[in-house]
């Protein structure tokens, strides 16, 4: 059985773009990638890389909360970075320490040429215990 998780304010993802911010299935919660949007209804990105990283991770938190979970339930994250990965890594590692406690989730990062939303610099997806 699968259950779509659609937090308040994120309905546009489901209705217009045809994906769920998360899906609960077989004891796991699969979170779609979140970018550094600070306003989803009228899509507005946070200003700058550090702010986009924080906003993306906060948006992950919104999805987790809608599913009745928190950051401690996350077992894996994948991050996608536009621009030199070496420039992003120190900022992302610093942000991870603000949102996650030990034991930290598994993490893989990718340098990419672009993301679906123009101007987005980072996207984060996750898998959590449901």
UniProtKB/TrEMBL annotation:
Source taxon at top rank: Bacteria
Pfam family, one: Ribonuc_L-PSP
SUPFAM superfamilies assigned: YjgF-like
Signal peptide coordinates: none
UniProt cross-references to InterPro entries, sorted A to Z: RutC-like_sf, YjgF/YER057c/UK114, YjgH-like
The protein's name in its UniProt record: RidA family protein
Natural source organism: Paraburkholderia acidicola
